[in-house]
Amino acid sequence: MAENPRHPGFPIPGGPVLRAKSWRAEGLLRLLENVLAVGEAPEKLIVYAALGKAARNWPAHAGIVKSLTEIEEDETLIVQSGKPVGILKTHAGAPMVIMANCNIVGQWAKAEVFYDLERKGLICWGGLTAGAWQYIGSQGVIQGTYEIFMRIAARRFGGSLAGRFILTAGLGGMGGAQPLAGRMAGAAILCVDVDEDRARMRREIGFLDEIAPDLDAALALIDAARTEGRALSVGLIGNAAEIYPEIAARGIVPDIVTDQTSAHDLVWGYVPAGYDLPRVRRLREQNPEELIEAGRASIARHVAAMLDFQAKGAEVFDNGNLIRTQAKQGGIENAFDIPIFTEAYLRPLFCRAIGPFRWMALSGEASDIAKIDDLVLEMFPENAIVTNWIRLARAHVPFEGLPARIAWLGHGERTALARAVNRMVAAGELAGPIAFSRDHLDAGAMAHPNIMTEGMRDGSDAIADWPLIDAMTLCASGADLVAVHSGGGGYAGYMTSAGVTVIADGTGAADGRLNRALTNDTALGVIRYADAGYPEALDEARQKAIGHVKLTA
Length: 553
Ligand code: NAD
Prior knowledge:
This protein is an alpha/beta fold. Among the domains are: 139-339, Rossmann fold (3-Layer(aba) Sandwich); 355-534, Urocanase superfamily (Urocanase fold, 3-Layer(aba) Sandwich). It has 18 helices and 17 strands. The protein has helices at 23-37, 58-70, 111-119, 139-156, 177-184, 196-204, 215-228, 240-249, 277-286, 288-311, 323-329, 341-351, 366-379, 384-396, 413-426, 465-476, 508-531, 535-543; strands at 46-48, 52-53, 75-80, 83-89, 97-101, 165-169, 188-193, 210-212, 232-237, 256-257, 315-316, 355-361, 404-409, 434-438, 446-447, 481-486, 496-504. Strands 3, 4, 5, 12, 13, 14, 15, 16 and 17 form a 9-stranded mixed beta sheet that branches. A 6-stranded parallel beta sheet has the order 8-9-7-6-10-11, sandwiched between helices. The chain has a two-stranded antiparallel ribbon with strand order 1-2. Strand 6 (165-169), helix 5 (177-184) and strand 7 form a beta-alpha-beta unit. Helix 1 runs antiparallel to helix 2 (58-70), helix 13 packs antiparallel against helix 14 and helix 15 (413-426) packs antiparallel against helix 17. It is globular, with a radius of gyration of 22 Å. The chain binds nicotinamide-adenine-dinucleotide. Its cofactor is NAD(+). InterPro entries: Urocanase, Urocanase-like, Urocanase_C, Urocanase_central_sf, Urocanase_N, Urocanase_Rossmann-like, Urocanase_sf. Keywords: Cytoplasm, Histidine metabolism, Lyase, NAD. It comes from Pseudogemmobacter humi.
């Protein structure tokens, strides 16, 4: 275990000593410890996205830890909404953990039902990667954010963001990646957050360059960086619903505008304009209805300013926080004139099942990640997205918690890399096993009609069969952990997703799991988009001979 200056009570796991009976169980235990070590409020089990939790409550957490230390190779731990409910006899090729988090039947899947069940201690929202113990800190979304910025650069700004101004908000668990991604993309980026502590923390860990004392100073810093074509990230403490309209009123039009406040959750996340943090914290317990009403009105102003920037020529997009949905409910009829990032920029990648794959060094040794970086560069020299990213990430992205790396790899590439790493573990070339996982926001793994599957070519946006099929496929493939999550808070009724983790412990059994699970996971992603009629997916399916059925356009 290593010290964790950010959260002293939550040390970072590592080292050669096992507490569990196998590396598979020990690996999953370390991942659970890691999501808390890098989480936003681990004392409340909160990892990110306002209320995304690692376990339902502390007794449930203790039960999971005990189960993972005692579980045998031929058993499977069942976790229901963050609570361990049993260990069943399965077989050595079966998953070691399967979990379902926050799934509520259709007519009841609403924010108020979720809050009620959560208050009664019956349910827990796992976010995407929090409840499935796959979160790796802000690094988890950083390449996605960087790729979005670079696609906008290619489409609108001649391939470069030097001298360009990005305006955004939210410096939390996921939003905290924005200043670093913006700087890596070469832009001058201004990030607004109401919570000074969050901004300070992002500066301390090297994700944010500086915090401006007020809007005038922030704009002056951005202006100077723009003029010099210098990359810079600036934080500003304030409410985005006040700052965005103020910037618009001054006649300033940023080049790119987005937002990553926790707008999806009007009780535990978004802070309405005119409310300070202590008042919001009190109202969360005493009068959540007031917060919902004030939050919606505030988001309406916030999004109206974003639409104003869009009308004046800025590239404006929704970064996956449901802000348009809330704004529409708050009376902004044309909120959906703002596009969602997946459809606008990333869908061609998802069609080829290229998405946010990641790996974590269970030893805690950064040198393991450095060796895998070298391997990636050697294995995929023609893949410009990945080689460019690995070189940038090495230079700019600090590790949080267990050393980890994310890289957008696709079908075949993920399997080849993971199996090669497993051979390195077997040969003793790494200090310990490596866990492979991915974000739930991946090709075959998510139905979310306002984020991942908005505007699908065949209209299949709201069909949640795909993540369920994905999870079942992953169980059939013997992945070590398989999770099915649905939305909580404002996301209730909006999404279903599947998650997977496989531990490369150097054994032949791990080689089989990695081969089957990672190959089938991405194959299903390509099949999902091919089924919807995307030419890129049909092409990928043909080129890589994916699936036994004949896919038609
Ligand atoms: P978080 O709760 O950790 O952080 C949210 C931040 O927003 C906090 O720092 C909070 O102080 C700030 N904030 C709230 N209201 C504000 C306001 N009115 N003005 C300025 N700042 C305000 O959440 P997170 O993990 O960073 O996630 C942010 C959002 O992004 C969530 O809705 C989450 O679901 C979504 N998300 C999107 C993706 C993606 O792939 N695009 C990935 C993960 C999360």
